[in-house]
Amino acid sequence: MKKLAVLTSGGDSPGMNACIRATVRRALNRGLSVSGVRKGYEGLIDNDFVDLKSSDVSNIIQRGGTILHSARSERFHAVEGRKSAAANLEKHEVDGLVVIGGDGSFRGADALASEYAIPVVGVPATIDNDLWGTDLTIGFDTAVNTALDAIDKVRDTAAAHDRLFIVEVMGRSAGFIALEVGVGAGAEAVLIPETPTDLERICRKVKDRVSMGRTSNILVVAEGDEAGNAFEIARKIEDRSGLKSRITVLGHVQRGGSPTTADRVLASKLGWAAVDALLDGAWPCMVGEISSEITHIPLQDSWTKRKPLDPLLITLSENL
Ligand code: F6P
User: Fold this and answer.
1) What is the DSSP letter of 125?
2) Helix %, strand %, coil % of the chain (to 5)
3) Is residue 290 within 8 Å of residue 40, measured between CB atoms?
4) How far from 286 is each of 97, 172, 240, 272, 294, CA to CA, in Å?
5) How many angstroms separate the CA atoms of 122 and 100, rounded?
6) What is the whole-number distance in angstroms between the Cα of residue 141 and the centre of ligand 1?
7) Which atom in ligand 1 lies closest to the alpha carbon of residue 170?
């Protein structure tokens, strides 16, 4: 193996830059040259490659976003798109590909590996933390700290006005962010897609608290909760109980910002490990970290297996 390429794909997450840096430097360190592919699979299809030297990844470890840019590529779902991508990798004499992203990105990487025998390794980077095979994904820690900081501020104004707030956090099909920040912020209820949402019970709880004189109430809802988004839940709560609420949708704020130490360190470890996995022939795999050990799982497991939520956190969110 003489040359590898690295790309970031799907929703960006804080720490992607730290991971690019580690990937590039580990590859150079092991005698490989490195190309960066801009805009994820779109750049693979459009032949948007840039050479990366050590100095190109200086001073990026602290930056959110991704210097390589990212995209969600519809064209890569089609055989034609993957054919162009594989041809471009061949044109650039790339022997291995590191894909930094989430489950959708890994499905694409796996297709490339099986259809064109391209060595690929996935590095889990998504704020959602919804990937099997790693305790944490790159970006989750930063996202939950950003959300927590915002909810603490909402608590101040909720307390000042004796109000009920519904705060919506990201997580289309996973409640990891909601559960973590819900427990961290002392939310009165956490609504997540993995557990049934009992709005009657929530209304009773809020009313009981109000009657006990505890008038600031915060509900944290994952955007993918089966009862609806924050606006729908607010309407349902008002219809059932007459309780009025204010709504805060945190949205893409959670995806930005300087990564936390934990995310920078995880990204550095996994970028390093991805290069080693390619050189050791461990592909197609996803590198991860479980109980402080670097692990490799078959790439497919990252999306075919569902990572469970921590049951203790669910208990805490319901009882504290
Ligand atoms: O996958 C990460 C994520 O931030 C999800 O939590 C969210 O539902 C989605 O991306 C939003 O995607 P987009 O930025 O493409 O609208």
Assistant:
1) B
2) 45, 20, 35
3) no
4) 12, 22, 46, 13, 10
5) 6
6) 16
7) 6
Mean pLDDT of 125-138: 98
* Spatial contact of 258 and 220, defined as CB atoms under 8 Å apart: no
Give the contacts of 8 (CB within 8 A, at least 6 positions apart).
16, 20, 40, 66, 68, 69, 70, 100, 101, 125
Residue 139 zone, left/alpha/beta (φ > 0; ψ -120 to 50; rest): left
CA atoms within 13 A on the CB side of 134: 31
The per-residue pLDDT for 204 is 96
218 and 191 Cβ atoms separated by less than 8 Å: no
Burial class for 185, CB neighbours closer than 10 Å (0-12, 13-18, 19+): buried
* pLDDT of res. 214: 82
Q: Which domains does the chain have, with CATH numbers?
A: 3-139+259-304 (3.40.50.450), 143-256 (3.40.50.460)
Furthest C-alpha separation in the chain:
70
Name the pTM for this structure.
0.97
Asked if 162 is an active-site residue, the reply is no
Q: Are strands 96-101 and 189-191 parallel, antiparallel or unpaired?
A: unpaired
Taking residues 2-21, what's their average pLDDT? Answer: 98
Which of 9, 172, 179 best tests ligand 1's pocket when mutated (most atoms within 8 Å of CB)? 172
Ligand 1 atom nearest to 171, measured from its CA: 6
Q: Which residues line ligand 1 (CB under 6 A)?
A: 11, 72, 102, 126-128, 170-172, 223, 255
Mean pLDDT of 88-105: 98
Tokens in use for 194?
Answer: 């993995």
By alpha-carbon position, which residue is closest to atom 2 of ligand 1?
Answer: 11
